[in-house]
Design goal:
Elements (H helix, E strand, L loop, with lengths): L14 H9 L5 E4 L2 E4 L8 H4 L13 H12 L4 E3 L5 E2 L1 H4 L19 E3 L2 E3 L7 H6 L4 E9 L11 E12 L2 H19 L3 E4 L16 H23 L10 E10 L2 E11 L2 E11 L1 H6 L5 E9 H9 L12 H4 L19 E8 L8 H12 L3 E11 L6 E9 L8 H19 L2 E2 L1
Helix pairs in contact: 3-9, 6-7, 11-12
The protein binds 3,4-dihydroxyphenylalanine (DAH).
């Protein structure tokens, strides 16, 4: 996954206990994007998340995410550009069609948002690969909002935006000739550019070719993937004036994704740090078989737009993308990347809460964070667990979280923070049966 997941600091709740905790106060159906859907025992969508579904920041005129999308689209002018697919997908589409194993952690209700057992919010744009290949698109980009339950800090938000890109060729001599020609074109383009690339082998024992693929074809396709993305990195990061005459540095790293092999990640050296930019690989043949294009082969990549926009625009907090404050919005114009001018930073209000969880129940950090987000919205800046222990005699778990309330737009009073913290506490009691210490 492009965003590393936080380590699972707690054992997961046994399903029965956890669901009965969440079932408290659940409506029997939910209206999402104009349609009604029944809920069930796995429903974990919160009103704060539901409110995000229609917003589609990646298509808002002059929004940084929209500008970044159009910049990448203009780098691939002859690709189909898709950006209006619904975020509601089946778990089958999000995971099974892409060869995710049954026990993959991304499937857990603690990590993903479910409307019900058969419907969820997509966790990545790869969820649409089969559908788009099935439509007959050979080269395409798809931009969309994706949803993951996560911790709260300046770079994590439960909704973010990804862009998926893919290109497939006929898996025969004619198709491979096309790949070779494109490789020659891209090599020529990159040879003239101020870029240094650290590569890894296209295929290795730890990053193997797929059995059904001719290794030579796989090499050519992986080469095309790398050349194409090196050229994209040059478009995105190549212009940085602060580097002076120093070259752009890009490095390739072996990776693992259930739906590609070989697989790679790309990192770019920018302002003194290596930054992970995207995941990519040679598309698993199973994906293309399911999409009814078994005679094609090709590559795909997925990148997170917020991450790249935060770097390019120097935007310090991921919540800013959702800001409706004129001081934020009016700074940007379409098709232009400019440095964000921070307006004043307002004071933080830290509030701690310590509690015992009921016997046998473990509250996942993402459950805690969803409660806080639902109460405080974008007034919460980060949440940290500052203590956790198990009482040696009673075996009960005690947790302590520190919530940092801070508005990006205005000064917030201590009373306001107290008010939100009280609501957080009462929801923890009601929904999870915790005992405040
Ligand atoms: N879907 C992956 C994620 O969300 C990113 C990704 C990896 C996309 C490899 C791809 C790919 O298309 O080939 O982390």
């Amino acid at each position: 996954m492009v965003r590393p997941r936080p380590p699972l600091s707690f054992p997961r709740l046994s399903v029965g206990r956890r669901l009965s905790a969440l079932a408290h106060g659940r409506p029997s159906s939910l209206e999402l994007l104009g349609n009604r859907y029944p809920t069930d025992s796995v429903t974990n969508l919160t009103p704060a998340i539901i409110a995000k579904l229609p917003l589609r920041l990646h298509t808002r005129p002059s929004h940084p995410l929209n500008t970044l999308r159009t910049l990448i689209e203009s780098h691939y002018p002859d690709f189909a550009h898709l950006s209006s697919l619904s975020p509601l997908v089946s778990p089958y589409k999000n995971f099974d069609e892409l060869s995710f194993p049954q026990d993959h952690p991304g499937r857990a209700v603690t990590d993903s948002y479910y409307v019900n057992k058969d419907l969820m919010l997509r966790t990545h744009t790869s969820a649409h690969e089969v559908e788009v290949f099935r439509r007959g698109e050979d080269k395409w980009l798809l931009t969309a909002d994706v949803y993951r339950r996560d911790e709260i800090d300046g770079s994590h938000y439960p909704v973010f935006h990804q862009m998926e890109g893919a290109r497939i060729f006929s898996a025969d001599a004619a198709g491979m000739k096309e790949v070779e020609e494109d490789n020659a074109r891209l090599r020529h383009h990159l040879a003239q550019a101020n870029i240094v690339i650290e590569d890894v082998p296209h295929i290795s024992v730890s990053n193997p070719n797929q059995e059904t693929h001719d290794p030579l074809h796989s090499e050519l396709v992986a080469q095309n993937l790398k050349l194409s993305l090196n050229s994209l990195m040059l478009t995105l990061f190549g212009g940085a004036s602060e580097r002076g005459s120093a070259p752009l540095r890009v490095r390739w790293i072996e990776a693992y994704f259930p739906f590609t092999s070989p697989s790679f990640e790309v990192e770019v050296f920018f302002r003194g740090k290596w930054l992970e930019i995207l995941g990519s690989g040679v598309v698993r043949q199973a994906t293309l078989d399911t999409a009814n294009v078994p005679n094609k082969m090709g590559w795909a990549f997925g990148l997170g737009l917020e991450r790249i926009a935060m770097i390019l625009y120097s935007i310090p907090d991921i919540r800013l993308f959702w800001s409706t404050d004129e001081r934020f919005i009016s700074q940007f114009t379409d098709r232009e990347i400019t440095t964000f001018q921070p307006y004043s930073k307002y004071p933080s209000c830290f509030k701690d809460v310590s509690f015992w969880t009921p016997q046998g129940v473990t509250l996942h950090e993402n459950d805690f964070c969803d409660v806080v987000r639902d109460v405080a919205g974008d007034l919460v800046e980060d949440v940290k667990q500052i203590d956790s222990f198990i009482h040696p005699k009673t075996n009960r778990t005690s947790l302590c979280y520190r919530v940092n309330y801070r508005s990006m737009d205005r000064s917030m009073s201590n009373e306001e923070a107290n008010e939100m913290q009280l609501q957080v506490v009462s929801r923890l009691q009601e929904q999870f049966g915790v005992e405040i210490r």
